[in-house]
Amino acid sequence: MQGWWKDTGTVEDLLEANRLVLDDLNRDINGVAEEDTSIRGRVSVGLHTKIMNGATVVGPSVIGSDTTLDEGVYIGPYTSLGNNVTVKRGEIENSILMDGCIIDTEERIINSLIGPYSIVTSNSEGRPRGKRLILGERSRVEF
Fold it and tell me: Which of 39, 52, 116, 117 could form a disulfide with 98 if both were Cys (CB 3.0 to 4.6 A apart)?
């Protein structure tokens, strides 16, 4: 084995490995960023990705291919978004979102690992609602 090795047996280990990899990232913008977006620092954006007006991406961060960040979305440092991800609303920081995720929430998502094709939404009607959770074995939720 050449280079370094990192055990990634827990969510915390995966997030730490993500930070280590992103620390060596170079800026590489291949997608389309509308005029009024803010892309700061070492950010890699994949092909056919669209970053809409008012969105902010702070590096180091990776945004996969065919991904859409809508107006007002914030992607903070040490975040990796997979391919075909849609973020309609929300703030995401120090997290990994795998392929095909949809995020549409007013909540801030931090220190999270979100599996492929997961959907995170929130009620925007102003009245608190109960949370419905479907969790796999050994899952952990923090509100």
Answer: 116
